[in-house]
Every structure is written in C-alpha cells, then in structure tokens.
C-alpha cells in the first residue's frame, strides 16, 4: 500500500469518526434537553449556541485534522481514483501543469473562505435566522402561517 492510498484510508476513517462523534454529541444534547423539559419547564432553552458550542468543541481538533488531510490529498493529486478513471478526457491535448496548479489553488482558497464564512455566520447568530426562516416557510407551505 503506497502512502497516497494509506492517506485516503486515514482520511475516510477520520470522516467516519467525525460523523459518529457529531451524531453522538447531538444525541446527548437532545437527551439532556428531554430531561430538562420533562422536569416541567417546557420552554427551557436547550438548543442554545452555548450548549452546541460546548457539545462540539471537543470535535474541533478532529475536524481540523480532517480538513488538513483533505488538503494534503488534493495537493498529492489524489481525489477519487475510480471517478477520475471512468471520466473521459475533455480534450485530447494534455493541459499544462500550471493550469492544474491554478485550479488547485482556487479550490483551496474557496474551501478556506467557505469554512471561515460558515463559522462567522454561526458565531454571528445566522444559524437561528436561517432556522426561523425555514420554519416560517414550512408553515406557509402547509397553510399554518
């Protein structure tokens, strides 16, 4: 097994662990909320930003490692071997190496910008705004709002 394949295996394991730990953190938060609400306080703020941050803070190093390994895999030129082999080439002449590097840089910059903007949106309270708008939209669709 070469190092690129081993890197992909580690990356898959990291993403599976991240998904499992995220699901466990959400399940624990939900169960804690059910305990609080079963105590008689049905309007208790359970899913607050602080509770979510407390639940997901231990996952940040794992997420950072997964993102770094993803960038390393992209830099190594190894995304998805099966998909890239099955796809027919778009042009017959080989593309210059500079074009591939430019595409990689653009993708990496967009990935970093998206991650930063998502984090800033969550910290700014945009998550609640989106949730309220989605709830209102669903209520309007079924005729409740």
Architecture overview:
The protein is mainly alpha-helical. The chain has two domains: 1-87; 98-145. The protein has six helices and no strands. The protein has helices spanning 3-38, 49-56, 60-75, 81-86, 97-123, 126-142. Helix 1 (3-38) packs antiparallel against helix 2 (49-56) and helix 1 runs antiparallel to helix 3 (60-75). The longest helix has 36 residues, at 3-38. The radius of gyration is 21 Å and the shape is extended. The chain starts with a helix and ends with a helix. The model has no long low-confidence stretch (mean pLDDT 79).
Short description:
Helix content is 76%, strand content 0%.
Helical content band: over 70%
Q: Strand tally, please?
A: 0
Order of helices and strands: HHHHHH
Which ranges are low-confidence, i.e. pLDDT below 50, for 5 or more consecutive residues?
none
Q: Indicate the mean pLDDT.
A: 79
Ends distance = 58 Å
Structural class: mainly alpha
Q: What number of structural domains do the residues give?
A: 2
- Please tell me how large the radius of gyration is: 21 Å
User: How much of the residues is beta strand, in percent?
Assistant: under 5%
**Biggest beta-sheet profile:** none
> What shape does the CA trace take?
extended
| Total helical segments | 6
